[in-house]
Write a sequence for this structure.
């Protein structure tokens, strides 16, 4: 405790220097926290799970996956047809409908890609929406209920609402982009809570399917995308064994030949998609983050070295008074660690609050991820980074401090 | 301006100078109605206890501060009326400083330290070199031009300090405890040097000191106590 | 290479001003340099922080330059791309065969060897299982296929040629492999031409035992075979495609791979006009007058420019990271300069006494800070420049959405990147040194000495 008091007093001796070191640490911990948050999110998305995970059925060869809707029912059952076949715990179909409110002048702001699906599956099959706080859950449930009653309903994320300049309760007409001549008249029945779905739109699949039928009735021929409307099917399975069985059922089923389909874990599908970003992710992990950590160590090392150099006489006096070398080392290290850990903690906390609650996530353009959030363990990262970089940065000056020779210092002073 | 009686030129004229500082609402008088004249070529000593106002008076004469009231003249210049910028330029040409702790730049050689004030004057490199070597010759260190202060003894460092003080041929040399950090032998050498400069260059020297032995070398010594000069010398010219 | 005046002028101004100030400041430059040398450990540590920040900036900018280089260089001003109306990307476009016949005979479309310069293309993205994928790596990859009717014409239009030893795929588009027998029912191999980037990528699937026989260690080459969709694919040639979006594409006969993967139409036509003006005319005709099919056309340059939207997002991210790291570096150099000044208060006092003005002393310390910054920054530029010419995977996508194109870009450390690095390090140094330098001149001279 006495040491701690001495450490704190030494930190306070040059407040400017301590403040600058602290600020440098805070800023650099902030960046490394952002980088690691993105990396850890991507790693988690690509990590294969062994229990209660989702798989995704898509066209086997081509991208974008475009399957006939006739596949939907049997795929949702995991292609179970024989006694003994297993079925997934839950399922969800996705069809992508792209539309714009202004067909003459289409822009990113006045367009959207909506997911056409069964709204009852939103709260059971979509990440994050299955674990909302009670208020948000109740509001979303209300919107879902409205959509089930009115299949012309649409639920929009808040950023989408803002860019379309619309509010809940208003109507919009979307002119088809990929579904040419399929225009949808929709009522905004709700919005997603602030989440990764800020830019997402969801419509009722029955409305899209009915519109395709109406097109055929009116024109006398099916829409070019009529038998390509099912883009993917999500299946939830309890474990890897069930996954394997369902995958085999789908692969061996004769029902899916034109086009052929494949069933892979969501993690695997995401990993394939993220291959395009492989080098970028490598750079973030092995160039950017280490460079930040080294810079941080240098900043701390610089400050502590200067401090030790200025206090040669004092350190010699401490030795004269009976302090042993390891105690002097501890004093110097302690200063660095206190600044490092304190600043790291403050930075991580501030980053957590600012990014998650003020900015609504990091909007970084990797794949289809809307936004990245700072996980709670980032607070521990901040502390660890501060601790480790302070230790690395101060060990050399601390070592030289404990080696101060009393005789040499006093000769200079005399 | 010369003394009508003796035809000597006054180098320093301090007339009715007050200097006070405000500490919050309180006014602290450091110098009170001080009048002082120093003629050309005089070796003038100033002594006094701590807090007597020696440093304040030195600041006023050296152009580092301005009086609250009164006038200060050095040579023909009323320095109490100059702006800070004017004073800085004036100091380069008219004041040479000698310090107790020498205050040489540790990374510069003896030559470069002495050359420093000349860099502010419109001289060519050759002219500067000549003046620096002359100054170093005068102090007996022309064989140490490339040495850094860390390679010189205390006495030698003070000689470099003196060379720097005289290199611009200043009107007044101000020496603040020049022997305070030296042993008695080196101190004697320095005081001998100062006397030699007085004689050969006809310089006017203002010496601030606690050392009675150094003070003995001065032609005239005044004592400052609580902001007032307590001994009135015989040769003061009256206005 | 055009050096950006927005970078050159400020840098020249800063450096010119620094030189001028050193002259006017009168305090010997050697005084600053020698002080830096005397405190070499502190100088080194501070400069190293600059080195890291600037090296990182250089590498990140090289990546972004590579992306811009890709999108900027992939367009021919005389080329017009035709997609089906409403298609946000090639992959969603469907053009009928009859459309092509109509359009390629437009008078503005030039001819070569009697054939209209019209590249008929079907762009597909296909999911390829990766054989023997190592643990922790994905088991699939997305392959970008481009079905071509006439590879010679297409190559001319896109300005592509093959490495020596290669050839375009034959009219049939398939070839029986030496070891396979048609009589035994073995399907012939599909002939393909690879972009260099994808040739490199596919070579990672090679088994160790195949390496000695490989013609080229770093990429798949002529005569080698890979598997996709239950067929064998034979490399007939490798394109010199580095720096273009075609670098990660596999070209094959459209009539083979289109039906194979369920694409019975073209996705795009690329028409070559005589020059930019003719191309613009052609584009306007197709968009405004041509009513026989629902098409949309844009100049190839416009198309690739639209793909650079991703570039801008990356650029913003790079700037953000660089600025934040620079702020960290500024605090570091501020510490160093505060320490330097506190150790030299006596020097400052003497200089003031001798008559040096406040601004001269301020400038002297700023220059010292600038020397540290520039030394570290230049080293950082040199270190970062080592990545020049490296290749990296990325993805570019258009604002309207779509899957995006997987691309292999060539990292490019150009003069502007180096200038930016030097300018940033100068900025950091001046910002970091300013406050300490200002504090230095607030000292009263005699106080500084006592």
């Amino acid at each position: 405790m006495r040491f701690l008091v001495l450490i704190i007093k030494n930190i306070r001796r040059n407040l400017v220097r301590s403040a600058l070191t602290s600020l440098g640490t805070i800023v650099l911990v902030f960046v490394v926290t952002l980088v690691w948050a993105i990396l850890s999110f991507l790693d988690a998305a690509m990590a294969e799970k062994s229990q209660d995970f989702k798989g995704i059925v898509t066209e086997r060869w081509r991208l974008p996956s475009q399957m006939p809707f006739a596949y939907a029912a049997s795929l949702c059952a995991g292609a179970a047809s024989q006694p003994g076949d297993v079925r997934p715990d839950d399922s969800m179909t996705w069809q992508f409908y792209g539309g714009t409110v202004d067909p003459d002048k289409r822009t990113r702001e006045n367009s959207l890609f909506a997911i056409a699906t069964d709204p009852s599956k939103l709260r059971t099959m979509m990440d994050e929406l299955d674990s909302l706080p009670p208020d948000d859950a109740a509001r979303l449930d209300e919107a879902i209920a409205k959509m089930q009653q009115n299949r012309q309903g649409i639920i929009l994320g808040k950023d989408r609402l803002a860019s379309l300049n619309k509010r809940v309760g208003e109507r919009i007409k979307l002119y088809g982009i990929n579904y040419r001549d399929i225009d949808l008249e929709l009522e905004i029945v709700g919005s997603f809570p602030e989440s990764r779905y800020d830019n997402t739109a969801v419509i009722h699949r029955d409305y899209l399917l009915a519109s395709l039928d109406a097109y055929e009735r009116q024109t006398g021929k099916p829409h070019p995308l009529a038998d390509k409307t099912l883009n993917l099917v999500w299946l939830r399975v309890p474990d890897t064994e069930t996954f394997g069985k369902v995958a085999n059922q789908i692969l061996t089923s004769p029902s899916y030949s034109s086009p052929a389909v494949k069933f892979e874990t969501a993690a695997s599908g995401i990993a394939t998609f993220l291959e395009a970003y492989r080098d970028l992710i490598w750079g973030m992990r092995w160039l950017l983050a280490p460079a930040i950590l080294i810079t941080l160590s240098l900043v701390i090392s610089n400050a502590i070295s200067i401090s030790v150099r200025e206090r040669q006489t004092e350190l010699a006096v401490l030795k004269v008074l009976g302090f042993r070398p390891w105690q002097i080392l501890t004093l110097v290290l302690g200063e660095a660690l206190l600044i490092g850990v304190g600043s790291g903690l403050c930075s991580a906390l501030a980053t957590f609050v600012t990014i998650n609650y003020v900015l609504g996530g990091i909007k970084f353009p990797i794949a289809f991820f809307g936004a990245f959030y700072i996980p709670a363990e980032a607070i521990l990262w901040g502390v660890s980074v501060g601790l480790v970089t302070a230790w690395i940065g101060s060990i050399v000056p601390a070592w030289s401090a404990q080696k101060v020779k009393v005789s040499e210092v006093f000769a200079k002073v005399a | 301006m010369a003394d009508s009686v003796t035809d000597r030129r006054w180098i320093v004229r301090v007339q009715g100078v007050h200097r006070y500082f405000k500490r919050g609402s309180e006014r602290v008088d450091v110098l009170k109605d001080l009048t002082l004249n120093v003629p050309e070529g005089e070796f003038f000593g100033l002594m006094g206890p701590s807090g007597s106002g020696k440093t304040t008076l030195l600041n006023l004469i050296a152009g580092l501060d301005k009086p609250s009231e009164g006038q200060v003249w050095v040579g023909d210049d009323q320095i109490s009326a100059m702006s800070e910028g004017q004073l800085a330029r004036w100091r380069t040409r008219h004041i040479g400083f000698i310090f107790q702790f020498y205050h040489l730049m540790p990374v510069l050689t003896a030559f470069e330290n002495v050359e420093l004030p000349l860099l502010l004057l419109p001289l060519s490199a050759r002219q500067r070199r000549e003046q620096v070597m002359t100054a170093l010759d005068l102090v007996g260190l022309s064989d140490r031009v490339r040495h850094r202060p860390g390679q010189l003894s205390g006495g030698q460092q003070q000689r470099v300090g003196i060379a720097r003080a005289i290199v611009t041929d200043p009107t007044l040399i101000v020496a603040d405890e020049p022997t305070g950090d030296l042993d008695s032998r080196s101190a004697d050498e320095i005081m001998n040097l100062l006397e030699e400069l007085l004689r050969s260059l006809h310089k006017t020297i203002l010496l601030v000191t606690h050392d009675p032995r150094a003070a003995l070398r001065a032609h005239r010594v005044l004592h400052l106590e609580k902001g007032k000069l307590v001994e009135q010398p015989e040769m003061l010219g009256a206005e | 290479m055009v050096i950006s005046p927005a970078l050159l002028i400020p840098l020249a101004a800063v450096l010119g001003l620094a030189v001028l100030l050193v002259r006017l400041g009168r305090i010997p430059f050697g005084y600053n340099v020698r002080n830096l040398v005397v405190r070499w450990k502190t100088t080194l540590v501070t400069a190293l922080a600059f080195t890291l920040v600037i090296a990182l900036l250089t590498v990140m900018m090289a990546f972004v330059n590579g992306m811009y280089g890709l999108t900027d260089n992939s367009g021919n001003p005389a080329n017009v791309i035709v997609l089906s109306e409403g298609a946000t990307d090639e992959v969603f476009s469907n053009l009928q065969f009859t459309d092509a016949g109509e359009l390629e005979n437009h008078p503005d479309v030039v001819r070569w060897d009697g054939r209209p310069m019209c590249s008929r293309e079907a762009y597909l993205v296909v999911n390829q299982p990766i054989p023997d994928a190592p643990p922790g790596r994905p088991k699939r990859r997305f392959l970008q296929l481009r079905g071509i009717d006439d590879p010679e014409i297409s190559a001319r239009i896109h300005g592509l040629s093959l490495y020596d030893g290669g050839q375009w795929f034959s009219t049939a588009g398939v070839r029986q492999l030496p070891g396979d027998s048609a009589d035994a029912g073995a399907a012939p191999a599909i002939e393909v031409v690879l972009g260099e980037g994808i040739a490199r990528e596919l070579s990672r699937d090679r088994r160790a035992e195949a390496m000695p026989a490989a013609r080229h260690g770093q990429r798949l080459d002529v005569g080698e075979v890979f598997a996709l969709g239950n067929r064998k694919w034979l490399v007939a040639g490798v394109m010199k495609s580095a720096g273009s979006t075609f670098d990660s594409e596999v070209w094959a006969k459209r009539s083979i791979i289109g039906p194979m993967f369920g694409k019975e139409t073209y996705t795009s036509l690329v028409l070559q006009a005589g020059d930019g003006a003719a191309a613009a005319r052609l584009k306007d005709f197709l968009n405004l007058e041509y009513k026989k099919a629902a098409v949309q056309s844009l100049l190839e340059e416009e198309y690739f420019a639209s793909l650079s939207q991703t570039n801008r997002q990356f650029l913003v991210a790079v700037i953000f990271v660089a600025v934040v790291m620079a702020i960290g570096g500024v605090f570091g150099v501020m510490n160093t300069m505060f320490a330097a000044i506190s150790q030299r208060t006596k020097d400052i006092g003497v200089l003031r006494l001798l008559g040096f003005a406040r601004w001269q002393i301020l400038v002297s310390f700023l220059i010292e800070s600038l020397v540290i910054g520039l030394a570290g920054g230049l080293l950082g530029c040199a270190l970062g420049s080592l990545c020049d010419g490296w290749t990296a995977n990325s993805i570019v996508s258009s604002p309207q959405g779509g899957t995006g194109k997987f691309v292999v870009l060539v990292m490019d450390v150009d003069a502007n990147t180096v200038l930016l690095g030097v300018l940033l390090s100068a900025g950091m140094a001046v910002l970091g040194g300013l406050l300490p330098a200002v504090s230095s001149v607030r000292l009263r001279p005699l106080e500084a000495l006592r």
User: Anything to note?
Assistant: The beta strands of chain A are 51-59, 62-63, 90-100, 111-117, 153-156, 171-176, 184-191, 201-204, 232-239, 261-265. The two ends of chain A are 34 Å apart (CA to CA). The CA atoms of residues 185 and 392 of chain A lie 62 Å apart. Residues 325-358 of chain A form the longest helix (34 residues).
